Amino acid sequence: MQIISGTTEINWEQHTAVAIGKFDGIHQGHRRLLDRIIRAKEDGLAATIFTFDPPPSVFFSGKPQAELTTKEEKRRIFDKMGIDLLIEFPMNARTAAMPPETFVSRVLHEQLKARYIAAGTDLSFGDRGKGDWHLLKAMAEKMGYQVQVIDKIMYGGREISSTFVREEILKGNMELAEKLLGAPFTVSGTVKHGKRLGRTLGMPTVNLLPPRDKLLPPKGVYLSRMFAGGSWHEGITNIGCRPTVSNSGQMSVETYLYNFNKEIYGEYVEVSLLTYCRPEMKFSSVDELKENMARDIEAGREYWESRRAEKTVGQRIPV
């Protein structure tokens, strides 16, 4: 996947199929949109995602917002999906004031050579957000592209949106968040050296320091899976500030992996949070912390063993 970031000058030769949006969370609605441009590759078009950096909501409010998916996470997900080109178009006073007609003719038509555009019903772009899918359709014949408007996906009578996903994650409702996203909610990053307390207690953990712009669910313990070393591993994760042994207030993501003993410091890993188990607690001593860690790990072990047993039963061939 090629990435063009931080410039308004886009040099691209191939005709493209374009999806425009923030894609925060890359939820089911986003995936439907992206599926359309990926399928357009069969017609020789380059599957292209167009985003603004920073997102318009952040630019206009002047306030940073924790993201469901960080820029690095989006890049990795888009690459795995088969996207050919990612545009991270700079959002500033000049680009924000660009007339929507100019955006279509100059950026989409001249620079990206768009032949197909997939648009959500809530799409807005250009000066004061006046551009929308109606404008895209009005200019389609003259600019030589086709427009497909993608309807929202509903869940429980509500439109799936980044706001909906965000609300459920902040409640710790990871199962529903997974349904809305189409995949488990994931925290990723480079494995860091911790205080080695877990190793000292006989329960070593893989430690991540989440980016400041990453949205996190409530502090506590979660059943999880980690992608490391090219495969997925069962685990249990604590998200929090480690109040029993530290008063720094620094958030960390610490994962104990079952049947795993490799050194992966410095590697990029992904932690999928599946089920919220309990809130983070401050214990009166390290010994009490150790006892509770052991109980959490054993409960997680029983969960994963039962999951494997259910899978084995489901795979048996009736006789």
TrEMBL record:
Riboflavin kinase domain segment(s): 180-305
UniProt keyword ATP-binding, yes or no: yes
Transmembrane annotation, as ranges: none
Keywords assigned: ATP-binding, FAD, Flavoprotein, FMN, Kinase, Multifunctional enzyme, Nucleotide-binding, Nucleotidyltransferase, Transferase
Top-level enzyme category: transferase
Enzyme Commission identifier(s): 2.7.1.26, 2.7.7.2
Superkingdom classification of source: Bacteria
Recorded catalytic activity of this chain's protein: FMN + ATP + H(+) = FAD + diphosphate; riboflavin + ATP = FMN + ADP + H(+)
GO molecular function (one): riboflavin kinase activity
SUPFAM superfamilies: Nucleotidylyl transferase (SSF52374), Riboflavin kinase-like (SSF82114)
Pfam families assigned to the protein according to its UniProt record, in alphabetical order: FAD_syn, Flavokinase
InterPro entries tied to this protein: FAD_synthase, Riboflavin_kinase, Riboflavin_kinase_bac, Riboflavin_kinase_bac/euk, Riboflavin_kinase_dom_sf, Rossmann-like_a/b/a_fold
ATP-binding listed as a keyword: yes
GO terms, biological process: FAD biosynthetic process; FMN biosynthetic process; riboflavin biosynthetic process
Metabolic or biological pathway, per its Swiss-Prot or TrEMBL entry: Cofactor biosynthesis; FAD biosynthesis; FAD from FMN: step 1/1; Cofactor biosynthesis; FMN biosynthesis; FMN from riboflavin (ATP route): step 1/1
Family per record: Belongs to the ribF family.
The name this protein goes by in its record: Riboflavin biosynthesis protein
Name of the coding gene: ribF
